[in-house]
Amino acid sequence: MLDIGDSALEPLAPATAKGAAMRQRLLDASARVFARKGYEATRVEDIVKIARTSYGNFYRHFRNKDEILLAVLRPLIDEIYVASKRRIGRSLKATEAEFIENTIAYLKIYAQHRKLLRVMREAAARGEKATFLSLYVSERSRFVRRTTTWLMRLQGLGELSRELDPEMAAEVLGSTMEQIAYMKFDLAPKDPSDAETQHIGTHCAKVWYRGVFGMVKESPEASN
Q1: Domain ranges, ordered by start, for the chain
Q2: CA distances from 62 to 119, 126, 147 (A)
Q3: Domain 69-215 coded CATH 2.40.160.20
Q4: Average pLDDT value over all residues in the chain
Q5: Burial classification of residue 189, based on how many CB atoms lie within 10 Å of its CB (0-12 exposed, 13-18 middle, 19 or more buried)
Q6: Which one, of 224, 202, 221, lies nearest residue 96 by Cα?
Q7: Are 147 and 175 in contact (CB under 8 A)?
Q8: Which of 84, 106, 127, 223 has its CA 20 to 30 A from that of 78?
Q9: pLDDT of residue 217
Q10: What is the C-alpha to C-alpha distance for residues 189 and 191, in angstroms, rounded to an integer?
Q11: Which CATH code of 3.10.20.600, 3.40.525.10, 1.10.287.3240, 1.10.10.60 fits the domain covering 12-63?
Q12: Nearest in space to 164 (alpha carbons), one of 176, 173, 151
């Protein structure tokens, strides 16, 4: 499988401030076009038209539409990765409330970029020959590895049963979040409200957290 870090896919770095500005114009234009038209229907012609530039300028910075979409998506995925990280200073075994907070943070950022992230899934679905299948698999594995490492550390401290397979648990979380995000965000006719995002994130987090760590005892105040 092709590695997305392969130098053959690295964008050509602009040599001047003017070149950097043009590259950003192209990125902004492509984000608008991909979000509106999807992967298959987008053409380089559409991007240069929105950017109000020439084919020559496009090909000075990007080899094809796959490469420019990769450049658009990478910072979005990084933003989601950072938003869902465990907060500094908190215990290794997050409370259910902290886990809910992280899940909602993840979904809020996802919701902001839902149209472009749907394009990534669309492009990845093209199969083994698609550059985006490699991107999708690579980025997904980054999230799964982080969760697997967390669960393994908890097992080492005796905070989690050895019966649980950390990697499988991490895969379940990843798959749950992917499918929920796809159904409730990617395919939604309009942007979800904050209340909807919090509702979805809270239930996803509770189901997963309680499946791994067991039911959480509610305080008397919470049950009233």
Answers
A1: 12-63, 69-215
A2: 18, 21, 34
A3: no
A4: 86
A5: exposed
A6: 202
A7: no
A8: 127
A9: 59
A10: 7
A11: 1.10.10.60
A12: 151
All residues at 6 or more sequence positions from 146 whose CB lies less than 8 Å from its CB, including other chains: 85
How many residues make up the chain in this entry?
Answer: 224
- pLDDT attached to residue 66: 87
CB 51 within 8 A of CB 25: yes
Instruction: Give the whole-angstrom CA distance, residue 52 versus residue 27.
Output: 12
Largest CA distance in the chain: 68
Q: Give the C-alpha separation, 178 to 204, whole Å.
A: 11
Which residue did the predictor score with more confidence, 129 or 86? 86
- CA triple 176-180-182, angle to 5 deg: 120
pLDDT digits (tens, 9 = 90+) for 44-78: 999 999 999 999 999 999 998 888 998 999 999 99
For position 224, what pLDDT does the model report? 46
Higher pLDDT, 118 or 218: 118
Structure tokens at 106: 């993840």
State which H helix or E strand residue 179 sits in.
helix 166-181
Q: Which amino acid is at 24?
A: Q
For residue 60, how far is the Cα from the chain centroid?
Answer: 28
